[in-house]
Each structure stands twice: as structure tokens, then as C-alpha cells.
Specification:
The protein is an alpha/beta fold. It contains 16 helices and 17 strands. The structure holds guanine and zinc ion.
């Protein structure tokens, strides 16, 4: 690991700190899959990681490289948020309602405002800045049903060199007319967005039917057609989040065996398809999701805030029919942009369902785990040569409390677990995107 780069390659920059390198999931593969390199450097050239190893050796090999010295801080791959809604930034923490009332009272009015291009550009800017402040370099994002809202986010993301997945929301019923499209328009607008953005720099378009309640069967058929025409495209929607939602879906789709079957019948279950929530899934649904290689998005702060329920991670982890689970903020049903806050809540929710998450599992989850779930683990999610140089630098002593607690930390594991429990945006010392430092606290 100390000298894996060819002598011809010259690093532009070396980021110095304690490197946290996951090769696999510590929950299933054991703690040894996490390698911690004490005084490490991450050498970067042309937006990619050139080498990770002992800092002194790296400096010798790259005497001309600039050094960003974060000695005593942890360096990890940038956090990945697997499910969020950028137009809901303006309604985060809205009082009182559960899912369907919350959508009607707060969400839909907020999303209607994204029909205005200026409002959308401002919202995209706030979202991109907030994610960077929290160390999130990549996200899988719902825009609104307005294609211009996707343009706003993608334009900002491209300017920052971000890896980003986003989609125009498809919805053609049970919502205000100002947000409704039609099956035809959803198809045409998604096609146009794919042509405009998919594969441009680091951007990808996702097929994005909001959920079964706000799409007619005709529109889900269109989503399925898009999925067939674009086999590798990401898909994102919501599944089995609240009991009222499930009962309503059963009334709207009487022919479906269960909620998962609504999407399955339309060809939407496959790898890179992220189904947010999945709280009340029956055994048959778990089996289908597993067989199809589909992904559940676990959104603990949202599930708690909206009173939706407790996601049972053990059901997804069953070795005989494993289902990939990605970790996500789900802003603005979710209450924080911070993956640290999200990891902490995931730990607590697991406890409430009888599962004790291993101490480093959440750090894997928010990085390589989510990269794998989103099918991006050949590019992001690892500190390894050839990977895109998206990095987060984590400061163990950023707040008075973590600084005090840090004095009694027994080892790296204890310290990282403490930081997940107590940390927030202050804990993020710096965020790098493709080798460029775009946030420094
Ligand atoms: N289900 C359908 N739309 C949404 C949304 O915007 N947020 C959440 N949490 N659930 C949904
Ligand atoms: Zn959501």
C-alpha cells in the first residue's frame, strides 16, 4: 500500500491525516476489513487518488506536491447520501404531520415553488453547499416534477465537479395540478433529461416515480418502459413507509399482491433501484427485493420525525436472502444533512429493533456501503489508487464536548463511534471533490 503508483505520475496534492480504509463490510466480514493508517497521506492527481500510504514516503516520492496537513484528523471517502429531496430543504423540520398530511401540508406547496427557475437555482445552491458542509460529496436526489429543477441541480453540481444522481419526479394523480404531469410528459421530459445530463461529467439521471399513490398504472408503465430502454439507469422511489400509505396503495392497485409487487409488475425492481423506507415489508417482499438485487434506502431521521416506524435492519441482513440497504437522510422528511446524525439514529433504531450495529459498520455504510448499493463502488467509496478523490476530513476535537471525550478515547474505534454519536457539521473539517477542497471549516 505504501508505494503503488508508477514513478512517472506526480501528485498535485497530498492530504495528510489518519486514513480509514474499508475493503468490505465490517458487519459481515469482521473488523479486520477496516485498515487504519496512522500518519497517512492521500496523494491526488487530476481528480483521482494516486496513492494512499505512509505520509513520509509519499512526500519523498512527490516533493512538488502541495500538502494539506490534517494531522490527527480522520480521512475517509466522501459521504454518500443515498436518498434525499433537494427541494425540501426549505421545509426541513416542519411541525406535526405524518407522511400523507405532511406531503399535502408542507411538501407539495414547497415543490410547487420550484416551477420558478430562480427559486430552483437558489435551492440547488443551498443544497449543494449544505451537503458539502456535511462532508457529503455524492447524493441520489429527488428534484420536483419540473425538469428545470433537475437542470438547476445538475448545473450547480457540474460546476462543482460533483458526482450526483438526480431525477425529475413523475406524478400524475393525488397531488396539486401544478405538480402533476402525464405519463407522456413524464416519459418525454425524463428522456430529454437523460439526453441532456446522463453521463455528462459525473452526473446521472434516475427514473423517479414519486410513489405508487401519486402515479397512475399508466405512468408506472412509462417508468418501466424507461427502465427497459435504459438498463443501467438508477431508479428511485418510496416503498412501505407508513401504514396509511400502504392501505391507500392497496386500494389503488387491487391487482397487486403487495406494495413491492406494484413496482415489480412494472419492471422497476433491479440493481441500482433504491426504494426508500421499506419499514413494513412482508417476507415475500424481502425475497423479491433480494432476488432482483434491488436496494432499500434506510432513512432513520425521517422515519422517526414523521412517526413512520422502525426499520428492522436484521430482516435485510438475512444471509439466505440478503437485501442491500443504503443509508440516507431523506431531507426534508429527514431532519439533518449530516450522515453522522443519520448514522447515530440508524444505530439507535437498530437497538430498538433488537440489533446492535458493530461500531464501525455505520462508517462503512455511509461510504463504501452506499457506493456499492448505488453501483458506484468502482469509482467512489474507497481510499484506493484510481478512485475519484472525493474525501471527507473528520475532526475529533471540533467541539468542546468531543474534545473532552476524545481525551478518554480508548482507540480509533471508540473515537469514531463517539464522533458518530456527538458529531455534526462542525466535525467536518474539510470536504474534497475530485481532489479540490470545496469546503474547509
Ligand atoms: N413518499 C412520497 N413522497 C415522499 C417524500 O417526499 N418524502 C417521504 N419521506 N416520503 C414520500
Ligand atoms: Zn424520500
Amino acid at each position: 500500500m505504501n508505494d503503488p503508483f508508477p514513478p512517472s505520475a506526480a501528485a498535485d496534492r497530498i492530504v495528510r491525516g489518519i486514513a480509514v480504509c474499508f475493503d468490505d463490510d465490517p458487519w459481515t466480514a469482521g473488523a479486520s476489513v477496516c485498515r487504519i493508517v496512522e500518519d497517512a497521506g492521500v496523494a491526488v492527481a487530476d481528480g483521482s487518488i494516486l496513492a494512499v500510504g505512509d505520509f513520509a514516503s509519499l512526500v519523498k516520492g512527490h516533493p512538488a506536491a502541495a500538502v494539506d496537513d490534517f494531522t490527527g484528523h480522520y480521512i475517509l471517502p466522501g459521504f454518500i447520501d443515498a436518498h434525499t429531496h433537494f427541494p425540501q430543504t426549505g421545509i426541513i423540520g416542519a411541525y406535526g404531520a405524518q407522511l400523507l398530511d405532511w406531503l399535502n401540508t408542507y411538501t407539495f406547496p414547497a415543490e410547487i415553488r420550484y416551477g420558478d427557475a430562480g427559486h430552483a437555482a437558489e435551492g440547488a445552491g443551498v443544497f449543494l453547499a449544505e451537503t458539502l458542509r456535511h462532508g457529503v460529496t455524492t447524493a441520489m436526489v429527488f428534484a420536483t416534477s419540473h425538469p428545470a429543477s433537475v437542470d438547476a441541480l445538475m448545473t450547480g453540481a457540474r460546476d462543482q465537479g460533483r458526482r450526483m444522481i438526480a431525477g425529475k419526479v413523475m406524478m400524475d394523480r393525488n397531488a396539486p395540478a401544478a405538480l402533476c404531469d402525464t405519463p407522456r410528459r413524464a416519459y418525454d421530459e425524463t428522456k430529454a433529461l437523460i439526453a441532456r445530463w446522463h453521463g455528462v461529467d459525473r452526473l446521472e439521471i434516475a427514473i423517479t416515480p414519486r410513489f405508487a399513490i401519486t402515479s397512475t398504472p399508466e405512468q408506472l408503465a412509462v417508468a418501466g418502459a424507461l427502465a427497459r430502454e435504459h438498463p443501467g439507469l438508477p431508479i428511485q422511489t418510496h416503498l412501505s413507509e407508513s401504514k396509511v400509505e400502504i392501505a391507500t396503495t392497496a386500494r389503488l392497485y387491487p391487482e397487486a399482491v403487495d406494495y413491492t409487487d406494484v413496482y415489480d409488475r412494472h419492471g422497476l425492481l433491479r440493481p441500482r433501484a433504491v426504494f426508500a423506507h421499506g419499514i413494513y415489508l412482508a417476507e415475500r417482499e424481502w425475497q423479491r427485493l433480494s432476488d432482483a438485487g434491488a436496494v432499500i434506502g434506510h432513512c432513520p431521521t425521517s422515519n422517526l420525525f414523521l412517526g413512520s416506524g422502525l426499520f428492522d435492519i436484521a430482516k435485510a441482513k438475512r444471509a439466505d436472502r440478503p437485501v442491500a440497504v443504503a443509508l440516507a437522510t431523506d431531507v426534508g422528511g429527514g431532519t439533518s444533512f449530516s450522515m453522522l446524525r443519520t448514522m447515530d439514529e440508524a444505530y439507535k433504531v437498530a437497538h430498538l429493533t433488537g440489533t446492535s450495529l458493530p461500531p464501525l459498520a455505520t462508517w462503512y455504510w455511509a461510504t463504501l456501503g452506499n457506493a456499492r448499493a448505488l453501483g458506484l463502488d468502482d469509482r467512489i467509496g474507497r481510499l484506493a489508487p484510481g478512485y475519484e478523490a472525493d474525501l471527507v476530513v473528520v475532526d475529533p476535537v471540533a467541539t468542546p464536548l468531543t474534545a473532552y471525550r476524545d481525551r478518554f478515547a480508548r482507540d480509533h474505534q471508540d473515537r469514531l463511534f463517539m464522533l458518530q454519536t456527538l458529531g455534526d457539521d462542525r466535525t467536518v473539517a474539510a470536504t474534497y471533490v475530485a481532489g479540490r477542497c470545496l469546503h474547509r471549516r
